[in-house]
From TrEMBL:
SMART domains: RHOD. It comes from Haloferula chungangensis. Coiled coil: none annotated. It comes from the Bacteria. Residues 88-175 form the Rhodanese domain. InterPro entries: Rhodanese-like_dom (IPR001763), Rhodanese-like_dom_sf (IPR036873). The lineage of its organism: Bacteria, Pseudomonadati, Verrucomicrobiota, Verrucomicrobiia, Verrucomicrobiales. Pfam families: Rhodanese. This is Rhodanese-like domain-containing protein.
Length: 182
C-alpha cells in the first residue's frame, strides 16, 4: 500500500509498512505507540486508535504521520546513491546499526559496527561529518537517523531498505537473510 492509499480506516500494520516512521510520529505528538499502555495492534485501524485515545482527531493524526513521512524521506538515501557517495573522494562514514551477530555474519564492505561506545565517540567528534546508517530492511534505521539529527549530527542519512536492498540493488554477492522476529 502506498502512502496516498492510506486512510483512517487503514490497519496500523499497513500504515507501519507504508510509513516506517509513523510510530515515532504518533508517539511524539499523541503519545501513542511507544509503550504497552499506549501501543496498538497491527489490525487496529487508525480511526479505532484515535477513538481509544480519548477521541483524538483521526484525520489530523493521518495528516501528521503523512507529513512526518515526507520529513523522513529527506533522511533516506537510495542504495545506488549511497554507493556513489561511498565511492567518492570524500566518502561518508558507513555505520551498521544491526546486532553484532548480524554484522559479523554479513555486512556492507567498509562499514563499522555501531555500539554504544562508538556512539559516544561520534557525538564528541566532528558534527558536520557525513554519516550513512543501515539496518536490515530499513524499518528501524529512520529512528536511529532521527536520533542522530536530534543530537547535532545533521549530515546523517539512512540507507533506504537497509542491507537487504543493498544486496538486491548494489552488491548481489552479499548474502541475504530473513529475521524471524523484527
Amino acid at each position: 500500500m502506498t502512502p496516498a492509499e492510506l486512510s483512517i480506516d487503514s490497519p496500523m500494520g499497513e500504515i507501519m509498512d507504508a510509513l516506517p516512521g509513523a510510530r515515532r510520529a504518533l508517539f511524539s505528538r499523541y503519545h501513542l505507540g511507544g509503550c504497552q499502555s499506549c501501543g496498538f495492534s497491527p489490525t487496529e485501524t487508525l480511526a479505532e486508535l484515535a477513538t481509544r485515545a480519548a477521541d483524538a482527531p483521526a484525520e489530523e493524526m493521518l495528516a501528521h504521520i503523512l507529513a512526518a513521512h515526507e520529513h523522513d524521506k529527506a533522511m533516506l538515501i537510495d542504495p545506488a546513491e549511497a554507493k556513489a557517495a561511498l565511492d567518492s573522494d570524500s566518502p561518508p562514514l558507513l555505520l551498521d546499526t544491526r546486532t553484532r551477530e548480524e554484522h559479523e555474519a554479513v555486512a556492507i564492505p567498509g562499514s563499522e559496527f555501531m555500539d554504544q561506545d562508538y556512539q559516544q565517540r561520534l557525538f564528541s567528534g566532528e558534527p558536520g561529518r557525513a554519516i550513512l546508517l543501515y539496518d536490515h530492511s530499513g524499518k528501524h534505521v529512520l529512528d536511529t537517523c532521527s536520533w542522530f539529527h536530534g543530537h547535532g549530527l545533521k549530515n546523517t542519512r539512512a540507507i533506504k531498505g537497509g542491507i537487504d536492498a543493498w544486496a538486491q540493488e548494489v552488491d548481489r554477492s552479499l548474502r541475504r537473510y530473513r529475521l524471524e522476529i523484527e
